[in-house]
Amino acid sequence: MARESEDPAMTKASKVKRQRKKKPKENKTRTVHANILYDNAKGEENPNRHYANNEIKTTKYTLLSFLPKNLFEQFHRFANVYFVFIALLNFVPVVNAFQPELALAPVVFILSVTAIKDLWEDYRRHRSDQEINHMDCLVYSRAERRYVEKYWKELRVGDFIRLRCNEILPADVLLLSSSDPDRLCHIETATLDGETNLKQRQVVRSFYDLDCDFNPLKYNSIIECEKPNNDLNRFRGYIIHRSGRRDALYKENLLLRGCTIRNTEEAVGIVIYAGHETKAMLNNNGPRYKRSKLERQMNVDVFWCVIILLVMCLFAAVGHGLWMFQYGDKRPVFDVLSPEGTDLSPIMSAIYLFLTMIIVFQVLIPISLFVSIEIVKICQVYFIHQDMELYDEETDSHLQCRALNITEDLGQMQYIFSDKTGTLTENKMVFRRCTVAGVEYSHDANARRLAMYQEMDSEEEECTSHGGTLPRRDSVTSHQSPHGQCSSPPTSVLIPLCCVLSTDNPSSVLQEKDITPDPQLLDKPTSQLPSDLADIIDFFIALTICNTVVVSSPNQPRQKVQLTSAASVHSSSSLITNRSSNKGCSSLLSSPSAESTLTKLDEEQTPRGLEHAFSPVPPCYDGKGWNLEEGELRYEAESPDEAALVYAARAYKCSLVGRLPDQVTVELPHLGKLSFELLHTLGFDSTRKRMSVVVRHPLTDQITVYTKGADSVIMDLIRPPDTGSSKGKRQKKIVNRTQNYLNLYAADGLRTLCIAKKILSKEQYACWLQRHLEAETAIQGREELLFESALRLETNLHLLGATGIEDRLQDGVPETIASLRKAGLQIWVLTGDKQETAVNIAYACKLLHYIQAKFLCSSTEQATKSFHGSFAPFEIYSSSSPSSHSSSHTAAPFTVHRLGLVIDGRTLAYALDKSLEDKFLAVARSCRSVLCCRSTPLQKSMVVKLVRNKLKVMTLAIGDGANDVSMIQVADVGVGISGQEGMQAVMASDFALPRFRYLQKLLLVHGHWCYSRLANMILYFFYKNAMFVALIFWYQFYCGFSGSAMIDQWYLIFFNLMFSAFPQLITGTLDKDVSAETLQQLPQLYVNGQNSEEYKPYMFWMNMIDAFYQSLVCFFIPYFAYADSDVDLFTWGTPITTLALFTILVHLGIETKTWTWMNWLSIAFSIALFFTVALCYNASCPTCYTPSNPYWTMQRLLQDPLFYLLCVITPLVALLPSWINSLQKPAGTSSASAGSRWGHPSPAPRHHRGPFYKQSNRAGGARWGPQTLRGACQISTLYFLQK
């Protein structure tokens, strides 16, 4: 019975648990209804009411919340809390040392300055928000039955909006209609990712076949999509119609806020995400804030200052207790009673005095240091921005500093991790060579033409001098073309406009697009085509259509080429399928329903035979010309590789002349214009490393798959040839020859791509299509299913050929790397390119030199001996001393640091295993350079994290593409190159550079200066405050440790805040210990920052000792000078304050290496300010602090000759040790000599290398056989390269 009674309760509890589990699943999607259906309904009935509106608010404060919220934020800084506590403690009568209101002044000043700065920044954000919120857009009104103008902020989720050409999108909009006849909308995403090439977006499939304009009143569908997120490359969902039909939605259907409509007169969409829920706003994280290494060191010394403060206060409290104890029961006349009027015991007096002394000695903790550091860093960033040597004229871009608080880290870097493509190279691809059907075409004439252009570049011919005379063989490519307008500019204006807006000089433009064909290859496709040369024409067809290039007319920039009716081929039987250009292969666009598609497939006729394939006039060509403007076509490519291949194919008269969502049109020699029905596009992704298109061939009517990708994956997918037949033997020979040519291309530093194809039978395609459609319509795990679908298709390929594309080194890269290595920086290159290409580029940029040894890491039964066995000839040293040598060869010892390591991605995957990472790191750190090939973005970040965490070194990562973002974010300092691959790397970085070569000056000059300035300024702050506080401490011995001060409280409060603040700010901003020219000529000086030579722990204590010595001098010389006089306390204390100020300022002058008029002015201003305040205060405030009377004190001192004598003698005696020390180490000389001492030894003379080379080669043959790497299943290669 008891069990039965418990069952209902248990079932209820289980139901509640189920409901709780279901809730998160229900919240994973968003349901969007059309707002016009709820115009007359109450607000509570609108299902979209819970979604954010389109008004953006990036401000942090309101008028009511500003004060409490700002104070709350400022109190997150511990120093502010400490100083407020000290100020409030001064309000307690029994322990107060100053006037409570006066003690609040410094804290209020610091908090007020910060609050005013925050308020101004917030006001600027408010103005920007208002401008954006009050922009106009067209929203459909049910009442007026037309589109009416509304402000952006009035837009709501579920509204229909009309978009016009060149209009900025106000929200994330699902595209439902387009004026484009192909139902496309072109957008420019420069504000999101910096890419200026056009992106195609497509109308939702359900609305694709509308014969009339879209009518919002007839819309009755419901949209289910994912919750708002910041992934710009993903959008998933489906639209449900009244009939119950469900169509999938993809990122190609979504227009993102901030993009610009191009090339489309009008488009209509429904708002899916608005305001702060849009992807653009979710990605807007603002500048990054990090804590620098110097700041972490400073916090340790601040802690020591707290300890010193507590020790001084405790010493004073004990002294006061003993002083009071000696009087016994007889109270001294100066004794202060408790608030109740009773006598205090010596112990209670000591406790109260301890708190009083914390108030008096509070200056020891530098309240103004934190504010001063922020000011100096902002000034440093400003001057870095003003350096015209870091400005790139070609791209019209400056250095950008996105993280304001780590400038000094630039001077302490130890490891640099660099991408290759686009970072060390131009990422402007030039077609150089190719191999087709096993025959290599060297393109020698093209090579000579490129050499001529390089000579033109070396002569530095300006673009403007050729703007009006250069023959316009082609138009500029996508990343060079101006923003498109709906109205085309005159032809006469276009040529100079393209030249001006081009990011490079004309010769580089011509290099990319003007290709001189190889005569041997040119004759083959232009002659009558026999069937045995089908591979050649297929090769060029693959180059032309296996991409996502958009075609536009040169006379109408960014206007799509419109085709005549003759362009449509097989339209009646074409599969209404869509493609996707998603590089992640995760959102291939919807295909038709499986039933209808398979039905159409069954009804199709069998493919025609090959006898019609190469007829002089194709069946689909009617001889009519295309309706094109005069002039050649422009290609808008998403990557430079694609543009280079399309231009190469055009040089062989195989031109891409039009691209539609379901059709690609190509012009071939003797065949005219052929339209390939585009069935599917399987986009490129970093895992598959290839892309494919599925087309219906217009000549054979066969379904053909064209694939291009990295040779490392394509060669593994080639169908094994049948060696029993002559055709199979010939095919095997073609594969082997192609592989050999690929190795030669890579050795020449060319980027290699393999081209292949596959013909599908009707049954094969139907089987694959059915499973592919199931993957497309899946909601859960769609990306994985689509990925598996692509893998099923891309098998048993037929190899057509391969290409070699040159990616030129950026100017100044070899010199920059050489300087950085002289500076003691370890440079690692992490690239996804193949090993031979990466090694060749490494040679070209002087990263690697002579091959010293080579061995293989293969898979055998041994497991854990891999690294230890492989590196048996070496002793792996834990230290990085250049003097470490191998003990294996006593005859010719060598330096471990003169080796280079090359490791590929497969080996790296196992080397990063927890059990092997220490050994890998031990070997890698013993090498001068490391080159990681075929590495994925994840591996790049893992390598950086491993080095940073294990070696505890300062790391810098530099890259230009989205695949470098993870590496950039993991490093201590991330640098983005604003290159050809968009702005993803820049947006994730701390600093952005136009070119790699600017990294040299950024680190060696500005990094060195920033670190040196801040390090010296921080140490000076500690010295200055300790010196001033020690003056009061010495006085405690003469006042019974009572907490009294001989210095007026006004001087105590404002000494650091006003009188001595300005000169150190000027020095911290402008001081240069070494000139820029010297720092670049002697890169070894950078080691100064790497070893933290400017800020060692002992330097803090040396400064403390120096401060206490100077305070003794400044205290006792005036003490003995006025010993027998009748001056009052302040008449003696004011000279001490003046002498302390003079000593501190002269000390700063000794530490200053570079003097400017601003240094002189700041010191003169500080002295003038002190005397002005003192004279005015002493003249007008006789009773401000009773019973003391400071009236006319400074005026009397200025009439006393003794005061002037003290002002000369005291600073000289106090600063004599510092002055002698500075004479022993002149500015710049010691640093230069130290740099030469710390620099790495130069390479050994060549005649010393011979015996070692011979011996190492013999050793390699005897001991360096194949070794095991645990878990490795494929052969990988490691190179050691002698520097």
Automatic annotation (TrEMBL):
Mg(2+) binds at residues 419, 421, 960, 964. Its cofactor is Mg(2+). Residues 477-488 have a biased composition (Polar residues). Keywords: ATP-binding, Endoplasmic reticulum, Magnesium, Membrane, Metal-binding, Nucleotide-binding, Translocase, Transmembrane, Transmembrane helix. PROSITE patterns: ATPASE_E1_E2. It catalyses: ATP + H2O + phospholipidSide 1 = ADP + phosphate + phospholipidSide 2; a beta-D-glucosyl-(1<->1')-N-acylsphing-4-enine(out) + ATP + H2O = a beta-D-glucosyl-(1<->1')-N-acylsphing-4-enine(in) + ADP + phosphate + H(+). GO terms for cellular component: endoplasmic reticulum membrane; phospholipid-translocating ATPase complex; plasma membrane. Residues 986-1221 form the P-type ATPase C-terminal domain. One of its GO terms (biological process) is phospholipid translocation. InterPro entries: ATPase_P-typ_cyto_dom_N (IPR023299), ATPase_P-typ_P_site (IPR018303), ATPase_P-typ_TM_dom_sf (IPR023298), ATPase_P-typ_transduc_dom_A_sf (IPR008250), HAD-like_sf (IPR036412), HAD_sf (IPR023214), P-type_ATPase_IV (IPR006539), P-type_ATPase_N (IPR032631). It is an enzyme of class 7 (translocase). One of its GO terms (molecular function) is ATP hydrolysis activity. This is Phospholipid-transporting ATPase. It comes from Sparus aurata (Gilthead sea bream). The lineage of its organism: Eukaryota, Metazoa, Chordata, Craniata, Vertebrata. The gene is ATP10A.
